[in-house]
Amino acid sequence: MTELIAKVTDTVKDVKTYWRQPRPGEYVPYKEVVTLSVGWMFLLMSIQWTIAFGVGNQFTGMTLGMNNNELLIMNYVCTAIGYLTAPLNAYIIDNLRSKDGKYRVYIKLAVPSMLLTLASLWLPYEQVRDGFKLGRYFMIIMLFLIGQIQGYVQSWVQTGIQNMIHVITPNTQERTKIMAITSIIYSMGYSINNLYYPIMVDILCDNGDKYNMRYFRGAYTPVALLMPFVLIAYFGTHERLVLPKSRITKMSFTGSLRAVAGNKIFWIRSADGWNNFLEDAKGNIWEWMVYRAHIMKSSTYGLLNTISYNANFWGMLFSPWFIKKFGKKKIKIVKNILQIFLIASYFIFYKSPLAGIGMFIVYTLDRFVDTGNVIDSAIEADMRDNQQYLIGERIDGAFNLISSYAGGAIGAVTGLFIPWVYRRKGFDGNDYSVLDVYENYDENLPLDQQKLNANCVLFPLMDTLLKISMVGAAIDVLPWFAYDISETGQKSMIRAIRIRTIVEDASADMDDSAYIDGCEAIIKARKYAGKEKLAVPHRKTVTEARRQKADTDEEKKARAEAVKAAKQAIEDAKIFNEEVEIADFVMRELNRFTTEFGKKQLELCRAIVAGGPQHFYENAEYIVALANELPSSEIREERIWRRQEVRNAHQILKSASLAAKHYKNGNIIEYDPQKYEDAYNLPDETKEQAKIRRKAMKQANKERNIYALTAAPYLAAKRTLELYEGYNDIDSIISDYDDVVSTRNARLQAEREKDEALALERKYDRESKEAEKRLRKR
Prior knowledge:
Helix 7 runs antiparallel to helix 14 and helix 27 runs antiparallel to helix 29.
């Protein structure tokens, strides 16, 4: 107990110390983590309302009476709209440059999202439906239009908040820790929702029938008004992408798609998600049993569901430890296997008098093992880091684009499966009464006095859906056996990216933390390169230490020290071995141009750059021939780089036509990055200033993009040569490391002393005011 109290005390002190400033080696202070978490919590509370057209939807189907055919048709229409907007969304994410950051800018849409949500709740759907002959179809049009607009704007707010976790820090271990903290805090939003909505059913509905407009408007309007509080995350966070500031680049639409299509981790995640139509076939079985079989009151369900949901808290709390101990791959495989058995356990009790307590237990266990909020977010971040390492470009929007297209096409087919099962089991999507276990249910009578519904198909339907879910859970296990990014491998890639960044930005105004991280990656690699791994002590050394005699206080203290030393020896050996493995990876990156492939790659890049930005495309045939002669390699990275260089060489043929189209006499004018920076930094405090800035940004962005696309092969080759030169001159690049560290530490110390002095001043002020109050009372 004493150790627990000491740990809690140390944690509180740690939070106080690093509330405004990050810990050494990290980027994000606790204040910023909490700010993001609270904004995220309000987001989850306020986005519960959206208009959807899935089969069995509670609002459009069960309340407004759209049948399954209408819901399916509208769902396909919405999918088609998604196909049209997906390229636009990807373009915006990958190319919009705002002072507010890559994702943070979208959080500003919180207030428009709230207004659209309120409008979608209070439009007169029933009056239009029942008001005239074709009213039903006008109602569907109303639902479609407002639903698409409201959902689109709301999705951008979600995109902003949910993706901040990927750009708030480049440190993977810190990112995992932040994911755990944010998950714990924002999950309170789920807990509040789980309590709130069932209570509102009891307050607003008769006999637990929540399928009416009074319930939806009365319950969802108050939470929609919480959306402006999401802006807390906008005002209190910053983005920290590890990207070279001096780079001129623009990923083409096809280039982005090609890059993402070759990312194995993306397809593993996607396969897991696309199979959800099977695993999720069971639907929310507990809610069905409450509102269709009436196994408990709505308020009781809300309380137990909230308690059950908080089991997720412990899973998220231990996620960073689980990831460090076992790795993401093992966690995903074990979690999916466990879910097979959890789904199977429903058959034991869900038709019995113990259904309520059984549902509570299984849902609690399921939510404990489902740490997806942390694990899946960490995997997605690794996926994007891996993409940046392999191709040198940060791609985000294209992931969503391909996921939308491929997922939409698959969903269009798989979406027919569950409605088909419904029909086979007697539920056609028109008559929802066949799901009710009792006829004319009266909440004042016990269940054994209720009249059973002879036409009820709920239990046979659920039997089939549970079997389908078990099959889906089993299939979900398979893709994760192909996952091959270890925790050490991910750290290695990040260090390589940091080194490339300081090399490419060597002549630019570089952020202190980015420079220090890049230098330390090189220094550590040199320290551990070529070292032999240590033998990790066996866990029995800890057990033996615990068995030491401890009759006296001195012996107890000695035993505690021995246990601590045994654990530390194991940890030190693991850290040493990890650093050796990372060092080998980093040194391979630094020596990449000494291999046969690396030498030939340099020859190709020199041939491209030799023509300069104005004439590089004039020797296209020779360059294409050089690219095709690049040697094949057993090294994965070199195979990918070879494909890139071949595509880059063929792109030169297109550069000639682009030069003729956009530049007089085909003479490419080299773009000055400062022009973009000058436009970007123009003031925008007044309406007129904002207009001038937008116009300047638009023009600068247009010129920048034209040059980036036209000269793409030249710029890529030039970056490769600069990387080679930087690696050869790495000592000169890191020569300012000690001075930069000293300057950074002095600045942080000054800021810390200033904060401590301010805190002390506030303390004295508060104490003096309290003393004055005591004197006045006398």
